[in-house]
Design a protein that fits this description.
The complex is a heterodimer of chains A (323) and B (279). By secondary structure, chain A is mostly helical. Helix content of chain A is 79%, strand content 1%. The two termini of chain B are 23 Å apart. Classes of the chains: A mainly alpha (323), B mainly alpha (279).
Amino acid sequence: MLRFILMRLVKAAIILIAILTLNFFLIHAAPGDPAAVLAGEAGAADAQFIEQLRERFGLDKPLLTQLGIYLGGVLQLDLGYSYRQQMPVADLIFARLPATLLLTLTAFVIALVLGTLAGVLASARVGKWSDTVISTLALLFYATPLFWVALMAVLVFSVFLNWLPGFGYETVGANHTGFRRALDIAQHLILPATTLGLFFMAVYMRMTRASMLEVSRLDFVKTARAKGLKPGIIQRRHIFRNAMLPVVTLAGLQAGQLVGGAVLTETVFAWPGIGRLMFEALAQRDYNLLLGIFFVSAAMVLLFNLITDILYRVVDPRIRVAS
Amino acid sequence: MSDFWKRFSRNRGAVIGIVILAVVVLVAILAPMLFPQSPWRMVQRPFLPPLSMNQYPLGTDALGRDVLAGLAYGAQVSLLVGIVSTVAALLVGIPIGALAGYFGGAADDVLMRFTEFFQTVPSFALAIVLVAIFEPNIQSIIAAIAIVSWPPVARLVRGEVLSLRSREYIEAAILSGQTSAAIIWRQVLPNTLSPIIVLASLMVATAILLESSLSFLGLGDPNMMSWGYMIGAARTVIRQAWWLSFFPGVAILLTVLALNLIGEGLNDALNPRLARRGK
């Protein structure tokens, strides 16, 4: 197990270095001289200042040396400087990271729990009306643009019904503390987390349903039935456990999409996470910040993938034995 | 072929999908005739609610532009980006997958590590970065969507080629002295066509969603009216004018739904063995 984790960490490190290299060349591919772009971002573009920037960031050195400087900087958690926000990129991102983690993890749990439940339910009633309803809903959620469903949720639950806040992370100026504050944040979390989770809920539902049906046709299930086991026990212990394996794999692979979706959800709900930060960076053409966020979200995805790989080994004893 | 149509038309969802898609395609083609004037032009007072004037059944936006005309021109952008970016992704993914699967060994290793890299990177974030850096326009949007969507094609084709590679007719072709290129092109690829067609129809749907998401964030082509842009522009006025974001969203939903339904129908019709097993 330790060897496996180590191997995976090495692989993740290689991918991260590749992403950083890509980032580096993207900044250089951006139209215009990077120093002029930086100067533009700082709001002062006289020749002397541009020359200073060039020296400070080593832009007068050969490209490979610059790449070395850049990679070395990232190792020390230096992701560059955002002239627009007048702050180091790393500080900006780490201040916003907790909000995004809270949002994506909540959305993930909602999607996984409701998605698999609905999938199991539909598979147990194949062809009946409850299966039709669940499958149709899944088909719809699967085709709905994330940002649109978020806007519609604000319209219905926040504007028309006035049930839930449709904006921000907590009530501005309320100054709640402790439990009251947690409750306030939870209320603000419901709409963004649910709308972000809808698409993934549909994916897990379809996967669970298909996988349950697939497994229920296997020989060992017939044996279990022939032994006279109760249908409920067969469903839970024999079919469900095996059917969950592909769902876990898929869930891990989709971590990246969840982070991407957060950009849209956070933009609609003014949720103060890195997704919203990315939108702000876009609006201001703040390339340093944009690439910093891209790097951090890729690192998050790699971490998610590693966790699911480990979970997978815990869930499926066959893989543990095989390695 | 007639078997294929029989199976396809038995699938109710797929038929509904075809009908919806046909309407969208028709609207996209007829847009310049139905709305000869630019969708960017101000035609009435701003925030005209839907159904209040016969001439503008879906109302007008914050700048008094016709929402229905916007929807019609938006269909062009969605279909164009969806189809062209999918074709581009196939042109990248098929050769990579075919080479990796056919030659195996080191070539396979290198190509698959390359593919894995693009699969691990968060695709939407990468698309945002690419479009932002290369300036938002229709070419950069299509290129960015193609770059983030080719890996599944490569993996699929590799798997198919790998399983065909050891068949006797391929061995016979090798013995008969055909070149690798000829074998891949004439013997292997034609047999991988049906799963590629299914995947491609689903990719067009995903590409349309991606394009609308990018335009929503303000990364659309500034010269082209698109559904995502309409929703993005209406975001801040949602409390006053719900219809501005509602209708374009329905248009995206229906188009994507139609393509997904068609994809499933194709899958059932092209892989009858699988379809029966699923029943």
